[in-house]
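To illustrate the input format used throughout this study, we show a single complete record. The first block contains the structure-token representation of the backbone; no residue identities are included at this stage. The design step must infer an amino acid for every position from geometry alone.
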């Protein structure tokens, strides 16, 4: 999926510690090579008893687990990391992630985690027995593991290795394969590249409630040719093959299987007929060891069928469907089963806004729970004992995220947070307590532990040190404004002015853009390093602004989906119109307007410069798509259908088509190891620019992926971008 923040590693990931006292001034080095503005967030794990949570803390070279009483805050050491010494080893392992068994007697630990793509990881797994105080490896065979999970009764661990599913009997240590055909073409128990990237799915198997079977995805990706990423840093360049289906080409053949652990027999689910091609986007056991539910999308992603399948026969039936004239987004259309699987809550835009619907297990509608003319954006859970649903939405406008609850009968909609800024929540399993996270555009996150009635128990994180450093900088807070666009539409925007702003002067303006479907850059929420980068530019005499064009989120389905089949057309027109509006302001130098963005924002920055007829003097495009035919099936076809069906839309949307219209200065940036937006996008645009005899600048980052990671590369990147702006804007 095209993402809007790839150029920015979170400040919390900055590697170097500050050297001595810092002057109250921003610099590229201070932003990206120190932890001066690194914000903390407490990542706690609720325990099922509703009275405690678990915290993972790093102490020296160890990782310790603490059990914390929610009400009092009293801590108890649950597991000392110094005890986690594997058999035959001298040093303890460090906990990267963990899961408790259902009875709390075992802890499944992942360590030595290695990243594959955006979400996929491999690791080495161990099981800690609290009573015996022993650490046992999940596998003694060679090869790393992935997505290990304890069985419901805690007697087994299943995992994926080299595209096959294995299970280990903990009592005996016996390990056996449940699938055997995994390899370069066949994937069992995890997913292919495009499912991982666009459907946020990598963990591809599920235990049955009784622990007697495992349901899993199986991918046959033999129809997808490899796309090669080239490592030029070796004597002879090395190739990395990515099975990457480009728009209009073949996808993997996908099936769901259910394997019986006792017999080893696999039953294959028969997806309801009527699909030429489809995606199986979600799956799990349906509160029964004999049935699974699955969400199936047609290739256009305009129809979702919720099915229930019998794991003994493979027969599946549709119980509910959702359709849209444009598209459905499976990451947005969340589904929560309640009442022991007899009902489910579903978030849908079928009535024009994201709203909550309650259905019975047979698919019949119980009621529409929310009836507002604003979008529900996140669902946090259902307190079934009290009959309450907790969620966030844009009820106070798209700039804000506010917390709400509503009765399951659709009555008593209640705001449970402040009305401005941005809030999110994490509730304990009993819904007695929750962690509220709050921020504003100029205010770092504040985390507060609250009772369900809203009473604050204690502040978990206030980022006081960061707030003090920000206060010393005397920054100008962003001003939220509206900008006129075509057809009387008002677009939301923000502008940051220099701290010593003088309305009698005229300033250069840099616009930051993302602009992709359902996204937002104009939010009253903490923006981390991106926000502070813009403040750095403002401190050096630039105006910085961002505009949410048509096609962005939290303003209803019609506003978001106007771009269907025509990506780039409305969005670029709105950004150009906004630039012209800004140029008319008395304090903006209309001859010195620039635009920059990354990923979809890089696409937008390129398109705006090429189609903007001289409106923009300069553009910085990081990892831009330059022709949607070069991008993947699931993302691109969701919004454009296939190139075969929509050739005119693809032609209009491609920056490649406008290379000969370029006016102004262009800086192209790309990582050569970008598995998401391939460097060929930039290379093909360069070829067109050269053919049109247009001058440009280029910066490549060898073997870097879609984001440029690491403190030193980021200092290099932002220094280079700053110098480009100084020279060309």
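Output of the design step:
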């Amino acid at each position: 999926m095209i993402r809007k923040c790839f150029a920015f590693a979170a400040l919390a990931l900055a590697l170097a510690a500050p050297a001595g006292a810092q002057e109250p001034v921003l610099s590229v080095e201070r932003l990206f090579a120190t932890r001066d503005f690194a914000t903390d967030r407490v990542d706690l794990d609720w325990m099922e008893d509703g009275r405690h949570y678990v915290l993972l803390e790093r102490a020296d070279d160890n990782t310790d687990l603490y059990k914390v009483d929610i009400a009092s805050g009293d801590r108890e050491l649950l597991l000392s990391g110094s005890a986690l010494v594997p058999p035959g080893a001298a040093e303890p392992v460090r906990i990267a992630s963990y899961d408790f068994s259902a009875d709390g007697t075992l802890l499944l630990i992942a360590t030595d985690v290695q990243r594959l793509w955006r979400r996929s990881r491999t690791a080495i797994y161990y099981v800690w027995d609290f009573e015996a105080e022993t650490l046992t490896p999940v596998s003694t065979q060679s090869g790393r593991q992935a997505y290990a999970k304890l069985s419901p009764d805690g007697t087994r661990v299943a995992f994926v290795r080299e595209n096959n599913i294995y299970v280990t009997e903990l009592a005996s240590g016996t390990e056996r394969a449940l699938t055997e055909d995994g390899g370069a073409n066949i994937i069992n128990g995890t997913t292919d590249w495009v499912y991982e990237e666009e459907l946020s799915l990598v963990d591809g198997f599920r235990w049955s409630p009784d622990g007697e079977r495992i349901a899993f995805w199986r991918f046959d990706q033999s129809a997808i040719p490899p796309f090669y990423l080239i490592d030029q840093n070796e004597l002879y360049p090395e190739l990395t093959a990515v099975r990457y289906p480009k728009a209009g080409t073949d996808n993997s053949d996908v099936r769901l299987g259910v394997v019986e652990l006792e017999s080893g027999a696999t039953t294959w689910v028969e997806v309801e007929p009527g699909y030429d091609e489809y995606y199986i986007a979600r799956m799990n056991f349906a509160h029964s060891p004999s049935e699974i539910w699955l969400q199936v999308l047609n290739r256009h992603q305009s129809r979702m069928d919720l099915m229930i399948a019998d794991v003994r026969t493979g027969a599946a039936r549709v119980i509910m469907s959702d359709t849209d004239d444009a598209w459905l987004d499976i990451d947005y259309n969340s589904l929560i089963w309640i009442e022991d699987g007899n009902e489910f809550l579903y978030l849908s835009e079928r009535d024009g806004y994201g709203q909550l619907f309650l259905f019975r297990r047979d698919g019949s509608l119980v009621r529409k729970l929310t009836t507002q003319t604003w979008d529900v954006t996140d669902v946090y859970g259902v307190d079934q004992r009290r009959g309450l649903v907790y969620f966030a939405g844009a009820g106070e406008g798209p700039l804000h995220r506010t917390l709400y609850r509503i009765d399951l009968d659709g009555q008593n909609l209640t705001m449970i947070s402040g009305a401005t800024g941005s809030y999110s929540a994490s509730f304990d399993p009993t819904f007695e307590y929750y962690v509220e996270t709050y921020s504003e555009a100029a205010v770092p996150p504040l985390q507060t532990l609250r009772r369900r009635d809203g009473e604050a128990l204690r502040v978990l994180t206030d980022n006081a040190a960061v707030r003090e450093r920000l206060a010393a900088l005397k920054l100008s807070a962003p001003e939220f404004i509206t900008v006129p666009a075509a057809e009387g539409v008002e677009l939301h925007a923000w502008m940051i002015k220099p701290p010593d702003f003088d309305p009698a002067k005229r300033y250069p303006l840099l616009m930051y853009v993302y602009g992709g479907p359902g996204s937002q850059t104009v939010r009253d929420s903490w923006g981390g390093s991106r926000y502070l980068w813009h403040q750095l530019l403002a401190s050096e005499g630039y105006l910085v602004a961002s505009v949410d064009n048509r096609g962005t989120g939290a303003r209803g389905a019609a506003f978001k989906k106007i771009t269907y089949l025509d990506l780039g057309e409305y969005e670029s027109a709105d950004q150009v119109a906004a630039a012209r509006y800004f140029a008319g302001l008395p304090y903006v130098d209309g001859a010195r307007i620039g635009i920059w963005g990354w990923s979809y924002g890089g696409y937008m920055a390129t398109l705006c410069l090429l189609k903007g007829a001289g409106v923009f003097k300069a553009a910085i495009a990081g990892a831009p798509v330059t022709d949607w035919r070069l991008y993947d099936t699931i993302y691109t076809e969701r919004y454009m259908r296939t190139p075969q069906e929509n050739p005119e839309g693809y032609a209009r949307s491609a920056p490649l088509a406008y290379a000969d219209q370029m006016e102004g200065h262009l800086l192209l940036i790309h990582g050569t190891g970008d598995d998401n937006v391939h460097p060929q996008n930039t290379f093909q645009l360069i070829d067109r620019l050269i053919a049109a005899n247009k001058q440009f600048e280029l910066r490549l980052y060898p073997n870097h992926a879609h984001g440029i990671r690491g403190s030193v590369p980021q200092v290099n990147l932002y220094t280079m971008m700053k110098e480009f702006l100084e020279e060309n804007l």
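Structural context for interpreting the output: The first strand starts at residue 45 and ends at 46. Residues 3-21 have pLDDT under 50 and may be disordered.
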